[in-house]
TrEMBL record:
Organism of origin: Mucuna pruriens
Residue stretches spanning the membrane: 333-355, 361-381, 393-413
Tagged with keyword Ribonucleoprotein: no
Name this polypeptide is given: Ankyrin repeat-containing protein BDA1
Annotated PANTHER family: ANKYRIN REPEAT PROTEIN, HOMEOBOX PROTEIN WARIAI
Subcellular localization: Cell membrane
Classification via Pfam families: Ank_2 (PF12796), PGG (PF13962)
Length: 416
């Protein structure tokens, strides 16, 4: 029996001892010899096929290059593991080398593509966690993992991929989401085209919750609406067409501002999930405290009967002009309102910037915070004893400058 036969036999039964017997006593260069052959069934392929986790891990540790080796069928060991449903082995291989998620096999299929094709939800989740950039890989047909999921009617897999894209909080997440969701295959079809052709109404509704370009045309000059045969899908697309124009403008305004702030500060790249939650809590507390301070400024407010709402009730004012105004002097109120407003604006803007979700739900949350900022501004203007023009100028120019300084300083501190 040759050394190769002994290795194959050991891999088939998952016995590690004969592996070292061959290496130490028979042929120390046996693994290097196998590695020189371009397309070959390595001992790692054999062990994976047989489902032997420990042997597969051992042989990969000894010869890491085997993990990227293609067999005569154009499959690497991890492709083989996914094909045969050996989930544990596939995860073990990726745990040792996360870059295996992007290794290409026959027809340019990566392990992520294959997991999408098979509807392996666990693998998709773990692969994206281990190697986020794998979502960018395409096949020889220029198909993304989402194209493959739709083409093989794996709706659950599509949901996992879609939700990962729209909730991704890394730097450049919005651009990545737009790019992948509107990516065209070799025939110019986006995933929305594929969903419409397959009459998958649920998939169409899901995709329309994000950055889909409805008027995108394939190589035949057809939009999604042109190729849709289902009346339900056509109705969904028509309704989405009018709604998406408004949503796109709103989202562009909010997300562009948020992305710019995060890019300047470096927060999205450097802040962990745990830290982000902590910052959200602190920002919320600051926003609450500053809003309350604006409603009840130091010294209180003039009342209709000429008394204030605090212990200084003996202070009288004969005119109704100052009813509801702060009793602080113009100078003191200007200092107070400027500092308090800046703190409120920075904290609320930080909340918007730190929100991780990138879907339709994010829009009303962000809008509500922006409306709160406007409400705050109106409240302070109502109680201000100073000129309206002066206050507006202070808030329009001073607060944004302070927010910019805070964002850049935050990035400098983190990087330092």
């Amino acid at each position: 029996m040759t050394s190769e036969d002994m290795l194959k036999a050991a891999a088939e039964v998952g016995d590690i001892s004969p592996l070292y017997t061959v290496i130490l006593q028979d042929n120390p260069h046996i693994l290097e010899k196998i590695d020189l052959i371009p397309f070959i069934e390595t001992p790692l392929h054999v062990a994976v096929s047989a489902g032997h986790v420990h042997f597969a891990t051992e042989i990969m540790t000894l010869k890491p290059s085997f993990a990227e080796k293609l067999n005569p069928q154009g499959l690497t060991p991890i492709h083989l593991a996914i094909e045969l449903g050996h989930i544990t082995i596939a995860l073990c291989l990726v745990h040792i080398n996360k870059d295996l998620v992007r290794v290409k096999g026959r027809e340019g299929l990566t392990p992520l593509h294959l997991a999408s094709q098979k509807g392996e939800i666990t693998l998709l989740t773990e692969f994206l966690k281990a190697c986020p950039d794998s979502i960018k890989d395409v096949t020889v047909r220029n198909e993304t993992a989402l194209h493959i999921a739709l083409r093989h009617e794996q709706y659950a897999a599509l949901q996992v991929l879609f939700r990962w894209l729209v909730t991704n909080s890394q730097i450049g997440a919005i651009h990545l989401e737009r790019t992948i969701l509107n990516w065209k295959d070799e025939q110019g079809n986006t995933i929305l085209h594929v969903a419409a052709v397959n009459n998958n109404t649920e998939a169409v509704k899901l995709l329309l919750k994000s950055w889909m370009i409805l008027d995108s045309k394939n190589l035949e000059g057809q939009t999604t609406l042109d190729i849709a045969s289902s009346e339900d899908i056509k109705m969904v697309l028509v309704k989405a067409g009018s709604r998406i124009k408004v949503i796109t403008k709103i989202r562009w305004l909010i997300t562009s501002t948020s992305e710019w702030i995060m890019c300047k500060s470096g927060m999205r790249e450097l802040v962990s999930e745990e830290a982000r939650n902590a910052y959200l809590i602190v920002s919320t507390l600051v926003a609450t405290a500053t809003y309350q301070a604006a409603l009840s400024p130091p010294g209180g407010l003039y009342q209709t009967d000429g008394d204030t709402n605090n212990t200084l009730s003996h202070v009288a004012f004969n005119s109704s002009v100052n009813d509801g105004k702060s009793i602080m002097s113009n100078k003191h109120f200007m200092v107070f309102s400027t500092m308090n407003t800046s703190a409120f604006m920075v904290s609320t803007t930080t909340i918007i910037a730190l929100l991780p979700a990138r879907n339709v739900v994010w829009i009303p949350v962000s809008l509500s915070i922006m409306l709160l900022q406007l409400t705050y501004t109106n409240d302070v203007l109502q109680i201000s004893p100073t000129s309206l023009t002066t206050e507006v100028i202070n808030w329009i120019f001073l607060a944004p400058v302070l927010m910019l300084i805070a964002g850049i300083s935050s990035g400098s501190i983190h990087r330092g």
